[in-house]
Amino acid sequence: MEIVYGTEQSLIVQEETEGWENLVEGIKNYLPNISQTWELDIASPPFATNLTLLYSQENTALEEL
What we know:
The chain is of the alpha+beta class. The chain has helices at 20-30, 38-43; strands at 2-5, 9-12. The chain has one domain. 26% of the residues lie in helices and 12% in strands.
């Protein structure tokens, strides 16, 4: 998962990253209005790039990124 913030900053985390479970739970708690299937959406199909916009503070569409 790539978390983009600021103008050109990002953080890449994977399931193997320490604290992954805490991050996933934090996302669910902090952003309760995102898709309930987001974990499956970002992981399917396995090992493929699957761009999924979970949240945009500025209501930016995925196509605009």
